[in-house]
Amino acid sequence: MTNWPVSRRVTVAVGLGLLVALPASGAGLFEGAHVAAAALYLDGGGAPQGSAPQGSAPQGSAPQGSAPQPGQPAPCVTATPFPAPTSVVPPPPSANTALRVPLRTAGAKIVDASGREVRFTGVAWFGFETKAFAPHGLWARNWQDMLDQIKAAGFNTIRLPFSNQLLDDSSAAPDSIDYTKNPDLRGLKGLALMDRIIAGAGQRGLGVILDQHRPNADGQSDLWYTDQVPESRWLGDWTMLARHYRGNSAVIGADLHNEPHGRATWGDNNPQTDWRMAAERAGNAILSVNPAWLIFVEGIETYKGDAYWWGGNLEGASQFPVRLSVPNRLVYSPHDYGPLVWGQ
User: Which of 158, 168, 252 minimizes the C-alpha distance to 197?
Assistant: First the structure.
C-alpha cells in the first residue's frame, strides 16, 4: 500500500464511480486507498494529456430519457466487448455476497459489522429519476428476473437514482411498466414502488445506495436544488427517506446529489453554491435520524479554475473536508468516465 502525500494533486481515472472512504476529519485524503483497475496520476498540474477533458463533462453523461413510447420497439443496446484473457476463467459468484450491516469507514476502507473490508461491486439501475418514474427495462422484463441477474453476476450493490419529484407528485405515476410481465407492481408508484424494488434487493442480499440524481425529472441540475425544488425540500426528503428506511438492512447509504457542476463550488462558504457546506447540512440531517447510513459525497466540476468531470473534482476536500456529526460515515465518491463511455 502506498501513502500518497495529500499536498499533491490526485486524479483518479476509473471507468465509473470511485468510492473513497475517509475519516470524518478528512485527514490523509486518498492516503493508502485501494483502487482496483485504476490509474493514479500524481503531479503538480493536470492529468496526462488525453486522460481527462479540459472542460465540463459532456451532456448526457447519465441517461436523460425514459422508456420507448407505446407502439415503438424497445431499444436494443449491445455492450462494448471487453474480453478477458483467454487463459483466465472467471470464477462463479460467491453464494454469500450479502453485506453485513451496519457499514462504517476505517481509514481509507469501508468495513462491515465484523470489521471486514467491504468492496462495492455495483450497478446503477436508472429510471426512477426520469419521467418513466420506474426502473428502466420493466417494459420488457420482469423486475425480479432483473434482480436475479444482478445477483447471479456477482454484484453486491445497486445505486438507485431518483428525483424528488418522484416522491410526492401525484402525476409521477409509472408509464413504462409492462404489467403482464410485472403484475405485482400494478397500482404502485413513487415511494411504494421504490419500497418494492428495495425489498426485492434485500431479499437477495443486495445493498442499495439511494441517489438523489436530480430534483425534477426533466433533466440534470448543476446544484442540489432548483427554483421548483428548494434546498428545504431536498433536506426534508432526505430526512424522510432516512427515517423511512431506518432499520432496513438493504439500504446502506445516501448519495446526496449526482454530479454537482457548473455553479457548484467547494469551500468558499457561499450558502447558495458551496457543495461542501450543503453536503454537511444534508449528511448531518440524515445522521440525526439514521446514524447507521453511509454518506456519499461526490465532487464538483471546477475548483480554483481547474475543471474535471461533473462530480469528479475533489481537490478542495484536502483543505476543506466534509465534517459530519457521526464519525466513520463519510465516503467521497468522485465520478469519472473511461475512454469507452466518456463521449456519451
Answer: 158
CB of 128 closer than 8 Å to CB of 161: yes
DSSP per residue over 256-278, as a string? -SS---TT-BSSS--TTTBHHHH
Statement: residue 249 has pLDDT above 90: yes
Cβ neighbour number for residue 285 with a 10 Å cutoff: 17
For the chain, what is the mean pLDDT? Answer: 79
| E strands, 149-202, in order | 157-163
Contact 14, 336 (CB under 8 A): yes
Give the Å distances, CA to CA, from 80 to 15, 77, 83, 178, 340: 13, 9, 10, 27, 8
Domain 9-44+96-332 has CATH 3.20.20.100: no
Q: What was the pLDDT predicted at 19? A: 52
- Convert the pLDDT of each residue in 260-277 to its tens digit: 999 999 999 999 999 999
Query: How far does the chain reach from its first CA to its final CA, in angstroms?
Result: 34
Each domain of the chain, given as residue ranges in start order, spans 9-44+96-332
pLDDT tens, residue by residue, 25-49: 333 322 222 222 222 222 222 332 3
Quote the CA–CA distance of 30 and 170 in Å, as a whole number: 44
Q: If you count DSSP H runs as helices and E runs as strands, how many of each does the chain have, helices first? A: 5, 14
Separation of alpha carbons 121 and 16, rounded Å:
11
